[in-house]
Amino acid sequence: MADQYNTNEEKILKDSHTKEIDLINRDPKQINEDVVKVDFEDVIAEPDGTHSMDGVWKASYTTFTVSKYWCYRVLSAIFGIPVALLWGFCFACISFCHIWAVMPCIKSYLIETQCLSRIYSLCIHTFCDPLFEALGKIFSSVRVALRKEV
């Protein structure tokens, strides 16, 4: 029974680091849907009455599309892994700081302020509540009548 539990635990740990990635849909959460999805028509457009020759327009489209495609592929081949390493390191540092510094500080602050909030609440209920109750009773007999005079 214990061996089966250890095997399942090891499998879960292994799967979290070696899970298969989808090579077809590389933006499943669509975080880059509106930002970097740039096509020829989004950048270059000729209004009515100002058209270049059809051959120039077709060549421009092909040049833009192919150069964007290959430039991205070459840049990602050269810099993709080093930049992924840097971002992995950056997010690991952020996670480390959040887990080991930020959350303990916040928790400590909440514990300390809980004590102060009880003292503050006690002072308000002791001094302000009777004052405002008395003022409420004093002004409870005041009647306001609005008249519109023309």
Average pLDDT over all residues: 86
Number of helices: 3
DSSP summary, beta strand count: 0
Unreliable stretches: none
Based on Cα principal axes, name the global outline: flat
Largest sheet: none
The SSE order reads HHH
Radius of gyration: 33 Å
How far apart are the first and last residues' alpha carbons, in Å?
92 Å
- Percent of sequence in beta strands: under 5%
Class from secondary-structure proportions: mainly alpha
- Helical fraction equals over 70%
Describe this structure as you would to a colleague.
The radius of gyration is 33 Å and the shape is flat. By secondary structure, the protein is mainly alpha-helical. It has a domain at 52-129. It is built from three helices and no strands. It has helices spanning 2-18, 40-43, 54-139. 71% of the residues lie in helices and 0% in strands. The longest helix is centred in the middle third of the chain and has 86 residues, at 54-139. The mean pLDDT is 86.
Features:
3 helices, mainly alpha
Could you provide a short overview of the structure?
This protein is mostly helical and 150 residues long.
